[in-house]
Amino acid sequence: MSENGFPDRSHLPTSPGVYIFKDARERVIYVGKAKNIRSRVASYFTRSGDGRPKIAELRERVRQIDFIVTGSETEALVLEANLIKRHRPRFNASLKDDKSYPYIVVTTGDEYPRVFATRSSHDPRHRYFGPFPSAGSVHATLDVLNKTFPFRKCRGPEPGRRSGVPCLNYHIGRSVAPCIGAVTKDEYDEIIADVISFLEGRVDGLIRDREEAMRTAARETDFERAAKLRDEVSALSHVRDRQQATIASEDSFDAVGAFASGETACVQVFAVRDGQVVNRDSFLLDNYGESRAEDVALQFVPQYYGTAAVPREVLVQSDDRDDELATLADHLSGLRGTRVEVRRPQRGDKRRVLEMAVRNAELGLEHERALDEARRNKVASTLDGLREELALPKLPVRIECYDISNTMGTNSVASMVVFQGGRPAKGEYRRFRIKTVEGADDPASMAEVIRRRLQRLKADDPKFPEPDLILLDGGKTQLSAVMPVFEEFGVGSDLPDIPVRSLAKREEEVFQPGRPEPVILGRNSPELHLLQRVRDEAHRFANTYHRELRGRAMTASVLDDLPGVGPERKKKILAHFGTPEAFLNASLEELEAVPGLPGRVAREVHARVHR
């Protein structure tokens, strides 16, 4: 995060592509396209935003910004549309108008297919190409198509007019008039096949011809024709750009691109489904052996598909390793249950998608390294600020925080969360049941937990290394309750001197032993924000454990007294609802649906629970 609380944007690329905003839970909340990703994203974080409603709410929720670099802005549009369909981000519905993108449809379900623009829902009998960036680009493309391929332009599934007279398009060479039998069915099908080939992206030859004709017209000072050819080249280029992200054959495959530098590597997996790039996954890998990118990709594939669904085809970057690719294909085929092909494409659309994955892996590694360096510098600065503000003997690299949770003295528990280098170390979290304290006595409960923690420290338990700071959720009372425990264990003499501080929630004051006045940290300071994150995490972890114990107790006491419910039916009820809260909130109909629970018993149970 930057100093103003927004995500750091300084390392975003200036290339065209798609930017993806994520919230604190890493959920996609907005997807957008840009000609310059860094510049476009920056516009969201100016004082006025970019003029659209709800921008303020959006930017307050953004915690992470991902990106996918593309070859052009048109390609970015296609990816944006695909990602919005996949993730359905909340803010896209609010911030974008609701019009759909235009497509070109070839009505292959008709005997004599038509070719026209549409925004309506897709008919599975026909072929659709797009989306296109604007209606203008679609109509320009259709104009080029019709001049090159004289397909019929009349409406309806049947060609021709009621009068039986061919239309003007036939007389000016824009239609072969199948309505009057001027062309055979096979000849018309060949025209439509050429149209589909054109729309599938095989347009380079047409573009070269028109560019040469445009230059010739300009040399001959026929500027009107040159301008017309220029517009045709532009329309054809839209088709070619769209093809970079829309695969001609409507295949489904994954493209695995890797980039390695030193002891770190990045792998990006582009998922293509039915000819559309629908998703991108990015992975940062340790590469201590400094393997080449090709080796990293091949080693990554079997690990990735241990959990992910296996497509029919996987594209990888590899040199002459047919044996390795064949072995990998056999392994993936066993996972999928049908034959899987693993190969490196040499040309065409699939090669372009793989190259895009490799390029994004390179940029992703650069981006992650820059962010990691910025984070380390920020964390080091924050920890040094805490050391100075709280008068600590050394940097608080390992912070342990404790909190108590109970309901009117029942099911009293405590939590210990650990932050290592400013980040949660969730594998080292611990939770405790309070054993020696009766009732709602949070200070005494805190003293019990600290005593148990210091016993572990005295026993030199490797699972509980020495902390640099112990933080208590509470004020002076909690701090006063634990100080005798520190003296009892000889902290500072028999045990290492461990600083202890308490954070009072109401005014966010930090209390420390031997100092009557609290330390007041700046409300917007990174030091206070770090302490708040640690304290809030301890509170969340304690409450989660308390709710779990309370739910068990509630369910056990209720089920033990229910009429007609013995041990077996009790197991079936718990297995059916999953959680105690779901059982206690169940309707009569839901109870009657429990397998093995008679309707009479279900009605009696419902009456007892909701008495």
Q: How would you sum up this structure in a few lines?
A:
This protein is an alpha+beta fold. The protein is built from 19 helices and 19 strands. 45% of the residues lie in helices and 19% in strands.
Q: Could you name the key traits of this structure?
A:
Nucleotidyltransferase, domain 5, 8-stranded mixed beta sheet, 5 domains, 5-stranded mixed beta sheet, 45% helix
Low-confidence sequence ranges:
none
Helix content: 40-55%
**What is the first-to-last residue Cα distance?**
52 Å
Profile the largest sheet. 8 strands, mixed
Number of helical runs?
Answer: 19
Strand content: 15-25%
Structure explained in plain terms:
With 611 residues, the protein is of the alpha+beta class. The chain folds into 5 domains: 17-95, GIY-YIG endonuclease; 103-243, no CATH class; 253-366, Nucleotidyltransferase, domain 5; 398-548, Nucleotidyltransferase, domain 5; 561-609, 5' to 3' exonuclease, C-terminal subdomain (DNA polymerase, domain 1, Orthogonal Bundle). Helix content is 45%, strand content 19%. It has 19 helices and 19 strands. It has helices at 37-44, 55-61, 73-87, 90-95, 135-148, 168-171, 185-199, 204-219, 223-243, 293-304, 322-336, 348-389, 442-458, 476-488, 526-560, 567-577, 580-584, 588-592, 599-609; strands at residues 17-22, 28-34, 64-69, 103-106, 115-118, 127-129, 253-261, 264-273, 276-286, 313-316, 341-343, 398-407, 410-420, 423-424, 430-433, 469-473, 500-504, 509-512, 515-520. The strands form 4 sheets. Strands 12, 13, 14, 15, 16, 17, 18 and 19 form an 8-stranded mixed beta sheet that branches. It has a 5-stranded mixed beta sheet with strand order 9-8-7-10-11. Strands 2-1-3 form a 3-stranded antiparallel beta sheet. A hairpin with an 8-residue loop joins strand 4 (103-106) and strand 5 (115-118). Helix 3 (73-87) packs parallel to helix 9 and helix 8 (204-219) runs antiparallel to helix 9 (223-243). The radius of gyration is 33 Å and the shape is elongated. The two termini are 52 Å apart.
